[in-house]
Fold this sequence. Notes:
alpha/beta; Leucine-rich repeat, LRR (right-handed beta-alpha superhelix)
Amino acid sequence: MKAAAQKTDVQMISKYREALENYSKNPNLKGSQVWKQKDLTEISFYACKLQCVPTKLITTWRSTLEILQLHTNAIRELPDIDAESMPSLKALTLSNNRLQRLPCEFLMKCRGLEMLNLENNQIQEASHHLIHSHRNISELNLSQNQLTSFVGQEECEDYAGTLSRIDLANNNITSISFSNCSTTKEEDTELNSHIPQIILPHSAFSSLKVINCKGNRIDSLTPFLPLLLHGQLEVLLFSCNRVREIPTEFTTDSMKHLRWLDLSYNRLTSNSIPAGSFGKMPQLDHLFLNGNDLSEEVTSSLSSLKIEYLSLKDEDNVAPSAVIEGKLFLGSLQSAQSFFLLKQLAITHVLSVLRTSKPFYPEDFQYMTIDAEDTASYDISKCFEMSHKFIDSGLKGGGAVLVHCAQGISRSASVVISYIMKKRKIAFEDALRYVVEKRPIVCPNSGFRSQLKRYENRLNDCSIS
């Protein structure tokens, strides 16, 4: 009965999608049949152009609503629902909105939350307090925000945590902690300097099994040791960070639960991995170290590990293709992730033609990001001129430029083709043929091809005039 009711809820919401899309003209949804529905348990307002949420939308089904999906709108804040709570709400999705801070006041009324998704907003601050104040949360997603830290701001009593997965990927985090307190008092360190310190994870994280921290600026694995040694952590996704060495604890058999470890695209070198690392982990069956600066000797030694899936080197196709030798490169997202590869090619500028892409190494390279979709209807030609200026700025300064999208096939390829057309004063087909010779997988989608042909006509008109 419950499943059938939820299905009806979704169908009902879809029926009134048109009214919701005209929300700006009718901010209170006046006259909408949605208010006549009783005892709804699930509501989904996906891509309805909501800039704020009507209080009535929350309060009408306060006691029955279990799932509220408000993703892909333009929401900046949530309404004040007074002192009353939403006891039944278990899942709240607010991804792809414009929140600049955690909606703490609203969340405090939702004590039963088990899943909270705030991915791809503009949130700048979050701490352990969010978890301490919502002790039923099992899944928390804060990926693709603007966080610079995730630590405990104050002492909190122990309790049995239920959090099993936390996603913090693609932020700007440099400081992170999962232990009992964020700092150690200096006097305590002096008094107990002769006693080996055992830092335990806070009990709030005692059930944590999956951490996704890829795409941040964390330079050490030490903050994760309490969870790895004394917790239940099974999966650590940590690619595209700044780690320069593997702690000696990774040579022991103390990490009894870890089965998936991704350290690809960090700053590891052959000298920074202690002998015997990873070999005594009883559950480890997936290990990723590709995209680091490892010698043949080290990779040969690691390849003897009895691990089901082991990635030590990038595939050959990760390296970008030289369109103009030593100057202009066309590649994939993996090309842009590899710090050592970028340095090896003397790249100075990176042009990302990719949705929701953030600079991986902004302190080392100059970036420009174009939020482009790989669809025939997307107008990529509007990006040509600004892209050309960025490429020129890199080349004129004596640098080298990487242009990339997800695969280096359509979006970034179209930008590079347009650049070659303009600089060499050649037709689209000739420029396409030239770029395909350099990177055979290049294949702009049909819409981009049409736009490039029109761009050829514009260039011809300019040359005639």
